[in-house]
Amino acid sequence: MAKPDHTQNTSPDDESKEKSLDFIRTIIAKDNESGKHGGKVATRFPPEPNGYLHIGHAKSICLNFGIAGEHEKGTCNLRFDDTNPTKEDVEYVDSIMEDVRWMGFGWNELHYASDYFEKLYEFAVELIKAGKAYVCDLSPEEIRAYRGTLKEPGKNSPYRDRTPEENLDLFQRMRAGEFEDGSRVLRAKIDMAAPNLIMRDPTLYRIRRAHHHRTGDKWLIYPMYDFTHCLSDSMEGITHSICTLEFENNRALYDWVLDNVNAPCHPQQIEFARLNLSHTVLSKRKLIQLVEKGLVNGWSDPRMPTISGLRRRGYPPEALRNFCDRIGVAKRDSMVDMALLEFCVREHLNEVAPRVMGVLNPLKVVITNYPEGQSEELDCPLHPTDPSQGNRMLPFSGELYIEREDFMEDPPKKFFRLSPGKEVRLRYAYFITCQEVIKDENGEIVELRCTYDPATKGGDAPDGRKVKATLHWVSAPHACTSEVRLYEHLFTEENPNDVEEGKDFTDYINPDSLKVLKDCKVEPSLANAGPGYQCQFERMGYFCVDSVDPDTGMVTFNRTVTLRDQWAKIQKSQQPQPKKNNKQKKKK
Ligand code: ATP
Ligand code: MG
After folding, report:
1. Can 274 be counted among the known catalytic residues?
2. Atom of ligand 1 minimally distant from the CA of 244
3. Which of 58, 108, 133, 334 is most buried as measured by Cβ atoms within 10 A of its Cβ?
4. pLDDT given at position 14
């Protein structure tokens, strides 16, 4: 697989530029100009309900629903491609609908391929009667052996020349349950020497005694994807059937089926490159393994690239849509860096998330000259640039918590935060100076004794003296104790799909992908925050409420994303370096 391709993405500041049409939108615009579909644009999003949707599906959702939304007569259906009963489940159906809605889209019509089973059967009969499909008794292994290779043509099945009457009789009996699973299939009669292997008499129907989550035990034969998909598209009047590149070879069969039955219309299949994202996997087959082996806590684990996992992590739908917009659609496979997704999340939350204070690793600070037992309330804005978010009253007292990493007893030269004798600003409050370090019997620092300057209320010194650091803090007697979960990439490797011999993708799981902090201290305004509430803990990142303990009321937070912009760094490293022989210019 390709390395992350950072160049194909527009840079964050390209936004104002006019968006040019991607190749799919260009095709559609041309079709509209020529009146090919009478000005109609009908797309569909066709997930198989065999797992939860992931960020790759979000790309397809944004594309299909997005295109429909851009046209006056545009429609987009949601269709469950449920032709494989053994792997599918209503739990997945429900989650998919929830995720599409959460992404901000609504479908025009809701369909299930299984609703078309009767009609699909009739189309198969039509092919049989026309001598274009036959019942084949070869075993799956024999069919494979007869297929040939890329270099060698295949061999005709000995059952290929059955008469339409015989085929019809056998197909009806397949449906009636007269034959064992796997003993016969219905195949299209195309060309066993076709250069495209998919066209070598592909299977259209197989016998499978499996309970279907919608049709129950009604059907004993199930249509294959290639037969179902094109006909479902046609019956729904789809104009542009957008799918991912791995279906490029299947397009010939898509067209063959529609050309050889009396189909209501012939949609155009268009393929685009699927999304690959660094440090994760985007395949339901792999994601289901993570869930089933208990390597994550279910499909909605905040480390999962599933839409429900990202939602729980605090990724807003606006950010996912922006991300999909930025990566665009191409005809070439590439890998997108996770840092771009995180950039989009940060960009949106920066606009909307209130700023509050939370201390992840608390260190107690006692203000020795603050009147004992007293406290005061500071009126602080919730957002630096959006006054409409209002203010909250923040209590300050003589006992505080600061971040443990904001203090060093023996700091290096460039450490500007708190250390013995050093003065710093407490955000929105006062300047404090560290006077004394208290340690326990093991030598661990357990408390700092500081003094504050009452004249610096609000965070500025009237005498104009400066401090080099501003720390976040919470008042100890007012603080709420919270659990905070910090996340890192789920995989240590950039591309966990690219496994070394003898290894499995699960061998690359990052052991530090989840860190749970049980004794964090957050400001009291967060006491009533409910699940889904999003905020920035100043200096520590964006967080969202995961859950609230019904007994204790304790709030658990997920860190959505840190404040570090790795994407900017990547962008910078991609820019051309200035030439080196310009010393003279510099001297001027
Ligand atoms: P997976 O490989 O994860 O199982 P899939 O292609 O089998 O994915 P479907 O449920 O069939 O999953 O996908 C529904 C739609 O989403 C299809 O049109 C498919 O092409 C598209 N899709 C799936 N994965 C991606 C991806 N990574 N990027 C873009 N589109 C995707
Ligand atoms: Mg699929």
Report:
1. yes
2. 20
3. 133
4. 45
